[in-house]
Amino acid sequence: MPAAERGPAGICGIDIGGTGCRVAVTTPTTGPSTARVFTGSGLRIGGAGLDVEDLMLTLEPLVAAARDASGARSLDTLVLGAASLVTLLRNAESVHAELHARFGAHTTVLASDVLTSHIGALSAQPGVVVAAGTGAVALGTDHANLWQRVDGWGHLLGDAGSGAWIGARGLEAAYRSYDGRVGGSAGLLDRLLERFGTPEDLVRSVYTRQDRAAVLASFVPDVAEAAAQGCAVALGIFRSAGRELARTATAALVDGLPPRIRWVGGLFEASPDLLEEFGQELHRGHVSLDLAPGEGTSLEGALQLGAATALGSGPEQREGFLSTQHHWTGRPQQPGRSA
Amino acid sequence: MPAAERGPAGICGIDIGGTGCRVAVTTPTTGPSTARVFTGSGLRIGGAGLDVEDLMLTLEPLVAAARDASGARSLDTLVLGAASLVTLLRNAESVHAELHARFGAHTTVLASDVLTSHIGALSAQPGVVVAAGTGAVALGTDHANLWQRVDGWGHLLGDAGSGAWIGARGLEAAYRSYDGRVGGSAGLLDRLLERFGTPEDLVRSVYTRQDRAAVLASFVPDVAEAAAQGCAVALGIFRSAGRELARTATAALVDGLPPRIRWVGGLFEASPDLLEEFGQELHRGHVSLDLAPGEGTSLEGALQLGAATALGSGPEQREGFLSTQHHWTGRPQQPGRSA
Description:
2 copies of one chain form a homodimer. By secondary structure, chain A is of the alpha/beta class. Chain A has 2 domains: 9-120 and 297-337, Nucleotidyltransferase, domain 5, CATH 3.30.420.40; 125-294, Nucleotidyltransferase, domain 5 (2-Layer Sandwich), CATH 3.30.420.40. Chain A is 44% helix and 19% strand. Chain A has 13 helices and 13 strands. In chain A, the strands form 3 sheets. Chain A has a 6-stranded mixed sheet with strand order 3-2-1-6-7-13, with helices on both faces. In chain A, strands 10-9-8-11-12 form a 5-stranded mixed sheet, sandwiched between helices. In chain A, α1 runs parallel beside α3, α4 packs across α12 (298-310) and α5 (163-179) crosses α6. At the A-B interface, β4, α2, β10, α5 and α7 of A face β4, α2, β10, α5 and α7 of B. Chains A, B: Residues 13-272 form the ATPase BadF/BadG/BcrA/BcrD type domain. Chains A, B: This is ATPase. Chains A, B: It comes from Arthrobacter crusticola. Chains A, B: Pfam families: BcrAD_BadFG (PF01869).
């Protein structure tokens, strides 16, 4: 890094999920909310799990552009917040090594996106964040001893109330209508035909694609439109989803945490019925609940985590982070730190 | 085919699904119930759909062994009954051509396995068959004008009440218990841990495999064991499955068909609760219902269809079969017959 000492060092935050990637770099003069955001494609998970080379190819131009836009000459800390990191990342060491080699960051941090969402939404205060988009997951933590991750098991095993969950139920109701089974919705069938072609066309395409959860979630706007027009099946799906997300948040609110819940993710804007049911269910269970939308994004959370790490005050300094594997920190001089 | 005229001509029946393949050959002296059955692996559906080459590699030794065991010198007719044929087979012509080239059959028939199940279960009588294993599908037909196929949309879009459906709900309940969400079952969680390792292990494996429906369905014996030991969640899953399968059968019993329903597939033996609820739900809806397990297997159905085709009396001679695309017949001399 010959140029490393000649300009301000930056903090790079990366937020990457199944459908997209967002990158920004902050410096002492540009903060998380003013840094320019660069966007790219999402994570591809192949038969061998996360493709590290593919990830690096996605990140390289975005990180370079974000660093140039910030005026930083080098990167002090790079935080990668990724969906499904805990379960799909088989080789954290190689990702640390690649990030260090390609971007020259002094410290690299790999974090579950639910942790960066939590930090962004709650400004590092203790409480619960529930994040819902294509998937759904909650984290309740005080950044010290309490670490309760709930759901986030993917569209086949959980993600209750998520976009994929809603889309799958909407499509099931469309197929029930097509078949003449009870529980169908003719309105949802019309929307399936419009979006995907014939029922057979959708079958042919969905089972041969890798991004099946995203295909399912792509039906959410149709379910929302049907609900807005009074379709009882669609309304019921959104209300059930709101209840499921409330239950996920409740399970993350373990004893010892203040009753503070923040929601983040586009799904909460998909339908007023979902949000209403979500709030009602939560207030039914908790008398004095502090419930609000998250303050900042998960990208802002990644940048905050990076800044705290650079200052040596990041939560990775505390026992909880390392012991619960919500993120891993790598420094080339201290390979033993990576866990 | 130099040897074609020197021995009796056989009828080859093939029944192939996601988890296995069964092949038998009949001759004028060995009927469908006495022919020796040869078994192999199931269909692999890759990113490009059905892999024809892979299918042929699976079939080649099985068909040769079945033909040799039967004493047939050549094959008159070959019937391939396959799961998801209608929706996943992109190139019927090439399958016909390959089957003809490799096995020398005069006539090749590609049929949906729900049709061969129907013929086997009902001995070609009009009525409804509902087939449940890893997937679930029903067909109501009189082999003439009425053709009502219901469900069979796969584990992401339907297959309500199937093995994959039951397994997914059982696993969801296990993850709910692990998370501390409502609706969980500690008993099912214990069984998940025993069969799949940690909850993260299952996530890692299921989303990187092609045979996800089979992985889900592999949990059915565990759900059945839990139900037998009184687990209310597991019992509820089997009862819901029974109701779903009854609704699928009901939707296939269109006006004009006699109220005759046959069930086939291993799932109906997985739990007495499923079968009881299935029967109760059907009898609630239909006063004078003729409800019984199927008489013969789908392999026997494929052999019956082959024999009828060879005699020129097969249902493919009738308008209904060709127009509804429940099977395709190919003859090298009459390429126009394939539709």
